[in-house]
Amino acid sequence: MKIDPDINTLPDLLRRRARTEPDSPFVRLRDQALTYGEFDARTDELAAGLAELGVAPGDVVSVFLPNCIEFLEAWFAVLKAGGVLGPVNPAYTGPEASFVINDSGAVAVVTNAHGADVIAPERDGISRLRNVISIDTGGDVTLAELADRGGPTPTPMPARGLDDLAALLYTSGTTGKPKGAMLSHRNQLVNATQGAELVPLGPGDRVGMLLPLFHANAQVVTTLIPIMIGCEIVMWERFSASKFWQTVAELEPASLSAVPTILAAVLHAPGAPEGQTSLRYVICGAAPLSVELLEAFQQRFGIRILEGYGMTETSCIASINPFYGDRKAGSIGLPIRGQQMEIRTDTGERGATGEYGEIVVKGPNVMHGYLNRPEATAESIRDGWLHTGDVGYMDEDGYFFIVDRSKDMIIRGGENVYPREIEEVIYAFEGVHECAVIGVPDEIRGEEVLALVVPKAGIILDLEALAAHAAGRLAHYKLPRQFEVRDELPKTPTGKISKGPLREQFGTWTTSTQAAAKQETPT
User: Fold this and answer.
1) Measuring CA to CA, which residue among 75, 5, 19 is closest to residue 230?
2) H/E run at residue 16
């Protein structure tokens, strides 16, 4: 996959757009709006301010913010200073955020007053962190003060290349501890190039940003691809099903990315249009999309749904159903150009058409590896092939389908939830002997989190106290929606907890059970 020879970094991509179309609109949120030229100049000032603060080429700077224009400014300022973007989920608690910031070796974090408060109790344990930069209050320095430090004449941007690190995106595994996926400028530029050629967008079109910027999707699909094409990014302040269609009418996006739970929530939401909208297509991924929901959405609104597949480790996009050409309901589509995708059987052989096996991916968009995790990297990338852990098959037309996940990961409303991380928190509660966390079907969120707990002998567990214990240590979306006490859990012959029988037991979680869970457990 070839990249423009004059573009070696993500800032080069922005500079070219700003040079050729300085007055074209780039980003808008409420009454804030910047052109490409204004954004480029603003991030030059901030980059100079970061350099003045001591951020050196190769340094990681965390961005601990919800979606806002300041997130985008911090991102490109960090890159222009020669640094590496280290986004942190804004829903994280102090221990969760501090782990990511500390593990990445971040020297600074850009956040807001809330984030500064979350980090404050943990700050002494974050070894390399020197500065907390706030977009409002609570930090050592504000973003505005940082821009003033940079002055009107930006310092020259440090020389960086295609294979230098651009982003460190944290993704968890079944062990529960997040791992930093190392993505280079080449990885992200290639993936944006691969995606830009597949979508029906032109200069001046608007792209809606609905998904969070700490995710690879919002970075590649709704930021880098629009910059490549010359689109305007229109940002949602927050998602509201009841106001979704009103916001679409106001912002007039031609496209946006969503997860299945969003599509389900807005299918029958108030104000749903009877006629045509500005939306030409919606890219949907992160979790399985039911054929029924896909067809109902397309039939009602006439908006094409492009179901795709990708991982943080593939920069974002690995496959997608094409806008032009056949789209197969239930499929994750065709591999993007310049990347290989195969099915591998248990023996490591390439699977035949229709044969089940693990999906593996190889290409210039695949990450360099996990930061300081050589064993995890070697397990994930073998002979240049990324082993996804997802089981699927390829049909006679080359379209791929996912049938199961080989990992224990739960996908709740498009967010990845890792049982082991939750189990470790539950085990830390006094009186817990054993526990198993599983995903159970949910009509709204796809899956919900269920925790099955065995108390120590003679102990009566206080489930409300256990729920409060978990709430103080886990982001809201990870919290079990039900805790159930068991006398024992099924075991394998070697004595390990066996989750298979538990999943079979709860395979038909009913609406009444969901309602009971919501009554029993604080949300």
Assistant:
1) 19
2) helix 10-20
Beta strand ranges found along 406-496 (DSSP E) = 410-412, 415-417, 432-442, 446-455, 482-485
Measured N-to-C along each axis, helices 185-196 and 10-20 cross at an angle, to the nearest 10 degrees, of: 50
Residue-wise over 417-446: b if at least 16 C-beta within 10 A, else e? bbbebbbbbbeebeebebbbbbbbebeebb
| Contact present, 373 and 171 (Cβ < 8 Å) | no
Write the CATH number for 415. 3.30.300.30
User: How deeply is 35 buried, as exposed, middle or buried, from its count of CB atoms within 10 A (0-12, 13-18, 19+)?
Assistant: middle
pLDDT tens-digit readout, 332-351: 999 999 999 999 998 899 99
- SS3 state of residue 96: helix
Is 208 contained in some domain? no
What distance lies between CA 325 and its chain's CA centroid? 28
- Residue 156 sits at the vertex; the CA angle it makes with 151 and 160, to the nearest 5 degrees, is 135
Give the domain extent around 35.
10-184
Structure tokens at 44: 């030059």
Give mean pLDDT, residues 62-90. 97
Kindly state whether residue 350 falls inside one of the protein's structural domains. Answer: no
- Please state the pTM of the whole predicted model: 0.83
Counting Cβ atoms within 10 Å, is residue 121 exposed (0-12), middle (13-18) or buried (19+)?
exposed
Query: For the sheet containing 446-455, what is the strand order?
Result: 432-442, 446-455, 482-485
Mean pLDDT of 389-400: 93
- The whole-number pLDDT of residue 175 equals 47
Cα 144 to Cα 64, 141, 147, 297: the distances in Å are 17, 8, 5, 43
Residue 55 falls within a domain, yes or no? yes
Question: Do the domain assignments include residue 365?
Answer: no
Q: Which residues, in sequence order, are CB contacts of 279 under 8 Å at separation 6+?
A: 248, 253, 254, 255, 256, 301, 303
How far lies 149's CA from each of 113, 130, 153, 158, in Å?
21, 17, 11, 18
Is the Cα torsion angle 212, 218, 224, 225 positive or negative in sign? negative
Task: Give residue 345's identity as a one-letter amino acid code.
Answer: T
Q: Are strands 400-405 and 369-370 parallel, antiparallel or unpaired?
A: unpaired
The pLDDT, as a whole number, for residue 155 is 62
Decide which of 127, 151, 184 is a domain's last residue: 184
Helix (H, G, I), strand (E, B) or coil at 136: coil
**Count of the separate structural domains present in the chain:** 2
Asked whether residue 221 carries a pLDDT value surpassing 50, the answer given is: yes
CATH number of 161's domain: 3.40.50.12780
Q: What is the residue-wise DSSP string for 315-333?
A: SSEEEE--SSS---TT--B
Q: Point out the domain boundary residue: 184, 201, 226.
A: 184
